[in-house]
Design brief:
Number of strands: 0
Order of helices and strands: HHHHHHHH
Shape: flat
Low-confidence stretches: none
Structural class: mainly alpha
Oligomer: single chain
Number of domains: 2
């Protein structure tokens, strides 16, 4: 097998795996959306909100069930279920963050609405500030840590499959250093 054929085979396998994962997310998201509709027909909005949140969490770019789930959650974000629905929107939006934040506008609106609903005797800006805090690691530091792991493993692979060399050792040391810096600052 030539090098080009190996690359094509690896790319085809990677594409097939991503397609299966995407298909699983779309099927599960649609199932959760249908369960939410079923709960609404039974008159149980709290269970419907849980199902719609699950549907929104099965995020795949451009998948129609995600936008439908957010729309149904927004429709339930009035009356006695308002706080629960806005929290579900916030939770789903935060859960789907990767290198970018899908549904950032929904997250911002949910933070604003939750701050208003929870304000009570405490001033609203305090709640808004608490909701705006993101305790998760920064994306840049997570990428830096991941790059460090990749570099360390690549250097180790050179050592295992070829032989020890100064450049391979330097790559390992650099990789471990980047990984540690990324973890420390995450």
């Amino acid at each position: 097998m030539t090098r080009r054929n190996r690359i094509v085979a690896i790319a085809a396998i990677a594409f097939a795996v991503m397609a299966v994962i995407g298909l699983r997310a779309v099927v599960s998201g649609r199932r959760a959306l249908a369960q939410g509709d079923d709960w609404m027909l039974r008159g149980k909005p709290a269970e419907a909100i849980r199902s719609y949140e699950a549907a929104a969490r099965w995020y795949v770019p451009l998948a129609p069930h995600v936008d439908a789930a957010y729309a149904k959650l927004r429709a339930l974000a009035t009356g006695p279920n308002a706080l629960v629905a806005w929290r579900a929107i916030r939770s789903a939006a935060r859960a789907t963050r990767s290198l970018w934040q899908p549904h950032a506008a929904d997250l911002a609106e949910a933070d604003t609405q939750i701050a208003k609903l929870e304000a009570g005797a405490t001033p609203e800006p305090w709640f808004a500030g608490r909701l705006a805090e993101d305790p998760r690691p920064s994306i840049a530091m997570a990428v830096l840590a991941g790059l460090g792991i990749v570099l360390a493993l690549a250097g180790a692979a050179v050592v295992v499959f070829r032989r020890w060399s100064m450049p391979a050792g330097g790559v390992i040391v650099l990789g471990v250093a980047l990984w540690l810096v990324g973890l420390y600052n995450a």
